[in-house]
């Protein structure tokens, strides 16, 4: 039995008023009791405890965007610079990414493992990732990246290659050959996912099917994913309608309607979460809501990659559950889930006086998106992210005193204060399943600065592959731009 003390408790932000001081008693990964604390220490009295935020869409990318020289590019060009990042040991890469997430207030992440390091075979790499997850200690829904079409843009490779300079064409041809060589047939990818789940599903890890997105997947692979998910009850996560060009592509590729297609193949269900949906239309929202699909909005990523602003109020008004993700592209490139929640709230709170029927986002709704809807997208939980006896012992402790030193009135809504002000600098401790993940603002389980130094040393040794893509950045921008603006987009 362990006990954690705090001056203030936000057991269910947006739904319950703050209480405290309290002691939260924990045993075998669960909260067993919450009692009032008569005499917290000065350090404990400063803290507010709340459920850790979730991040329902990420990739454990190693490098921040500006490091890759990819700033200012739209998604379709950006992806070619990201693909040139140096390869490092996957165990180091995942430890580093999840440690950054934990320091950003994330107690749970949906890790869509689309950026394999590729230094060992894919199954061995997935096992290394699982070990890294257990070492860091946050909860992870691990979506196995499924794709069976080697593509370089939203449309026919041949036509896109024709727009490229000779040097870029050669680089992209080499990449296409390399990705074709490592792609398993659709059925084997489903079997891979099943076997991985058998080996790594644990109290902390839950495997999902993770088709990249429709541009990268055959109809057979999408159908097999839908069947396997229905048979096993396993969840599915996929990118969907992230960019305006993907919208145009999808409208040409699926004349019956792309959401209708997903429904026809049986993919739409409460087990499915779709990342982005920046360009989903009102009639499509209604069908997503009817089927119980969760949409994972990634506001910073959509701004950074020039994809757009998701119509979150319209989605919510249509009855769609909306969760929050960071996509590895938080506004300050720092994995801060608290500030991402704030951006989500301000972007979608509506204009002028309140009109709740419009689906606009209140501070409580923003917490629901970051806490409850993320747990649903990851683990299918209906009532996750509450601190109460019997619930998972997941707790985030913030330095509440330092963010409230100017208050004049008693009784202000603590959830509103946290939503308005909290950021990663306020994070003191993160506890997941009763275990310290962050203690006194540092990763608890291992020497994180040493691990990061080792990871960066490996990356610097392998940075040559970045040079080629970096030199070709103007060509990438020009070729993808010409292709995406042309009628060739989505053409067969
Ligand atoms: Zn993504």
Give me the secondary-structure topology.
Layout: E1 2-6, E2 8-9, E3 22-27, E4 30-36, H1 42-45, E5 47-50, E6 53-58, H2 75-82, H3 90-103, E7 106-113, H4 122-136, E8 139-146, H5 157-161, H6 166-182, H7 186-200, E9 205-211, H8 219-232, E10 236-240, H9 244-253, H10 258-264, E11 272-276, H11 282-291, E12 294-297, H12 299-304, H13 312-317, E13 321-324, H14 337-347, H15 363-370, H16 372-379, E14 395-399, H17 400-403, H18 414-421, E15 427-432, E16 435-439, E17 442-443, H19 448-461, H20 464-471, H21 473-485
Parallel strand pairs: 2-5, 6-7, 7-8, 8-9, 10-11, 11-12, 12-13
Antiparallel strand pairs: 1-3, 3-4, 5-14, 14-15, 15-16, 16-17
Which descriptors apply to this entry?
4-stranded parallel sheet; 2 domains; TIM Barrel; Urease, subunit C, domain 1; alpha/beta; 492 residues; 21 helices; 6-stranded mixed sheet; binds zinc ion
